[in-house]
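Sample intake sheet
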Amino acid sequence: MDGAPESPRPRSLAELRVALEAALKEARTAPDPRAAALAALIEIQAESRQAALARLGGARDSGPRVARELTEAMDLVVRGALDFASTYLHPNYARDAAEGFAVVAVGGYGRGEMAPFSDVDLLFLTPWKKTAWMEKVVESTLYLLWDLKLKVGQSVRSISECQRLAREDFTIRTALLEKRFLWGDEALAKKLSAALRKDFLSSGPEFVEAKLSERDKRHERHGGSRYLVEPNVKEGKGGLRDLQTLFWIAKYIYDAEDVADLIGKGVLKAEEAEIFSAAASFLWTVRCHLHLAAGRAQEQLTFDYQVEVARRLGFEPQGGRRGVEVFMQRYFRHAKDVGDLTRFFCAALEADQKKARPGLGALVRAFAFGATREDPTGFFIRDGRIDVADEGWFDDNPVNILRLFEEGLKTGALIHPNAHRLAARKLHLIDEALRLDPEANAIFLRLLSESGDPERALRRMNETGVLGAFIPEFDRIVSLMQFNMYHSYTVDEHTILAVGSLRKLASGGLITDLPVASEIIAKGVDMQVLTLALFFHDIGKGDARPHEEVGAEIAARLCPRLGLTEGQTEMVEWLVRHHLIMSDYAQKRDISDPKTVRAFADQVRSVERLKLLLVLTALDIRAVGPTTWNNWKAQLLRHLYADTLAVLGVGNEGLSRAGRVAEAKARLRERLSAWKDEEIDAWFAQHFPPYWLGLDTDTQERLAEIGRSAKPDNIHSRFDDDPARDATRLCLYLADHPGLFSRIAGALALAGASVRDARMFTSSEGMTTAVFWVQDREGAPFEPARHERIKKSIHRALRGEYVAREALKPKRELKKRERPFEVPTTITFDNESSDLYTVIEVDTRDRVGLLHDLTRALAAASINIVSAVITTYGEQAVDSFYVKDIFGLKIRSAQKQKSVEQRLRDAIRQAAAEAEDAS
């Protein structure tokens, strides 16, 4: 545009080098030479860094180039600081050769790969020992670099010291492996290279084992899976450090300078080298953006940064998935590729005898260790592992691709990486004809439902791409992340873990955690149906429609192909379509209400369905994450299962409402053996049927003990642990008054307690008996030492000594990683699920004090809360309230429902605004 000033052209690195030399020379005559030099270094550092980062843009493979240019920019600054310190601050024109030294870049800086906030690791190399002049130069240089706000790692060593320390410490040996001459006496740096190379030649296998052991320990520290939904880009499994480990070993063993060298040495094939480069490019690009988004050396790709990095890289929503989910699927597919490369690389090392062979199970016992021989089935045994003699074996009969995995499970042997490679390269043979082949489908079904380790088989098939090729619908969920705080793994990993857990259950390995499910399996169920229900239960995710509906349609289509009968197919389809209902009823409804159980039983309709659904539900929840399953969920499912069996006519016959009340009173009477009959009768007369049906006998006994000696004007409370629910139980007995539930909920929120379940009943004497089951922020019962503090907070709130809503405001701040999540608010009024109450279900964003906000709004609307069932799924909260109006009736009026809903939405909006202000 005319008149608009043109932006100055960025100076090249060569131009910046000349400019820095001139500025440093000019600084010598300045009033404060050091300050002038520092200003010049700051200017050149900023300009060169900005030029490098400008190349990042929105390209998804620009990371390596940016990493190299950031290194070059850093070289310019470090060399400038050294030149100024050695020639101006501490000139030594008469020094001899013994006073010379070299500066060597090591670690990632030596490798030439720097992220925006990487450390600068320097080795000051001396020919013999430090001199006074060298110490002065090193000190002045470091102070200049520190004033540039650089994080510098440094050491001063001689060649012999480097050799000795490298022999003793593999971390130092690795850092020296990536050394790069930077400044000073280059001949000295070459001597170090020659000395180290001589040492490296004799210690290859030792180095390989050390680095692989270090990798395994690192994986364990960072979660042990490459499919964790908040991965560490640098240190996690499938991350950059894994690629770097492969290259360290390649450089150490093969003296490789780049990935291309590994092709010539037969370590990687050309297409695998391309995969290596593509993974490295993507991961480096993500890491650079992650550093810039955080403004520091952030390596974990947490939820908040996932959204930002996805935006920077231009990932858009696709087919019902958010842009961030599309981005993370790409990330996890590259992480999977890194795992494949690791296996192929280690196989090459073993072939060259640079790495010890692993324990090989049954097949090694059957064949001589290290032997190479034909197996009668046509498999080739190499180094005790299953391999394929030639590529034509798969070409001749593509069913052999599936036989390979079946043979691995039959023998207990590992599959040789060469066979993995070949299977991955032959995916084009898995066409529609093979998918419809009865033999191929029979093998696949056996792998899932009859083998001793289906998890291992599925994982191997998934890693090679065979699983997604044979079941194309599964390929859509491979590496698919669900952007929420509830699920710990990708969908395919979650599915594989769930199927694997079924085999553990069948072998008796989960009898402590899942006693009822273990008993069901032990008595006999259709394992084909159950296995396929688990395999298909989440296969519909990633679609815009409800995943249970999509999954049921896929199951109905594929089960006959896999060889299931019509009846089996119908059962799998039903289980997939309804795999969420048992969890929803157990966790979102009051299962002590007989109508809740009847409604659930009406959907299930048969004992066989109920048994299979319980097992499916439990294994599904366990596979969500390592801490998701707990006693709370276990006891809810067990109670719902037992009560539903009774409704379906198995076990105890279903009692009438009056019969259930009488039974509850009889159980409590047995517990109150120290009471007089007239005391018991008087206590029983105070409470209405919902009290007897809504609490277990143990809790009723606690309340009776409190109420026996209670004074009406006082607040009485008692804390104890409820191990069956992994929670602390708080029992309260006090005079009834409006807003009681809300005040207690507010006090608990201030004390850091999460309410999981609550019951509140008013007696004929005007007294309230309330029970709250609470957990700490880690989802565990509170330590007894904290009970008194919580008790005081509740008593103060009930006496009106503080206003919970105001006290909660500064505590509402959302953690940064939690802010990207948006949960739309849904409020429903259900007058069918309970005979006595309206169930108001509020599904919204979880936050501190939410229960207090909601119950306060209900109290303001003159709604009486009898019980509340609280469920959280990461950032999502589903709070269900069993309520009546002030006349003791259900809320049936549409106008009243609309008014109550508006109050609840206003409370949620106000709390969200306060959270925003606090953040």
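Comment: The chain has 41 helices and 15 strands. The CA atoms of residues 442 and 553 lie 21 Å apart.
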